[in-house]
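FYI - complex with (2R)-2,3-dihydroxypropanoic acid, inputs then prediction.
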Amino acid sequence: MKVVVTFPIPDVAKQMISEHAALQCWESEESIPVSTLIDWVADADAILTTLTCPIGREVLAHAPQLKVISTVSVGVDHIDVGVAAERDVIVGHTPGVLTNSTADLTLALMLAVGRRIAEGDALIRSGAWSDGWKPNLLLGTDLSGATVGLIGLGPIGRAVATRLKGFGCRVIASNRTMRSLEGVEFVDRETLLSTADIVSLHTALTPQTLGMIGQKELALMKDGAMLINTARGALVDEAALVAEIKSGRLRAGLDVYTEEPLPLTSELRELPGCVLLPHVGSATERTRRAMFELALANLFAGLQGYDLPARLGTT
Ligand code: DGY
């Protein structure tokens, strides 16, 4: 049996995999070229991967023996799951273990944008804070008491809702399927967008959700409202969002982008009305370890023909 790993992994993980199978591991921080991946998967039984490595129809077509793809992520938009299913390749991912970290970071972005934390930090570091406390310095908006609209009420959306209740927020939500959750009012998407002081995205990227927040949806948002995205960049029309932030009408807290890393030419970099993070929603030591452990458990179960602890479609 052979396992292809598409990103550098610690030696201890290599040893663990080598006890089960022959290992071919991409060692560079640069992404593995598609041509190399196609070459490597020709005799592979399993792939261990992450969200930076697209596994599409072409790669899958060159992997006749492939049984399992295990990704160290909850999102699977980098994998053509339809083609994987057609080819009886099972997909494992890492739901649950990153819920709290991602929900924490969502709240951090809401507070950072509302209370202008990055601007305050930059002011001090630049030496421009020269005259002490001033009544109008960096006035922001409160999270306490705000109306927050959650689009998507899966585990991360629900964990965000729980935290927001502690801040005395009114939480409204729209979701593909209605779920009841104490203290959360269900509304339609238009009502959510036009009512919320803060709109936060917690839905997976699929062909149906791609670009779901476009110019029309952003225009529905209240003047001064804030968009928070810790899910996937491509849920939002980034150019339309830039225009709204530039005009000063909306603010944003973003952890994810249509193109990652965010291109140097992106206008978002120039706009003070947004706080930008480099896709670190799950980036705590404990969570990354748990994600890695779950991905390895999925990989080994798939190789041995057992049910995966977290198989896509059953989680
Ligand atoms: C995921 O797992 O999909 C996150 O975006 C990265 O941890």
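The chain has two domains: 2-97+285-303, 99-276. The chain has a mean pLDDT of 97.
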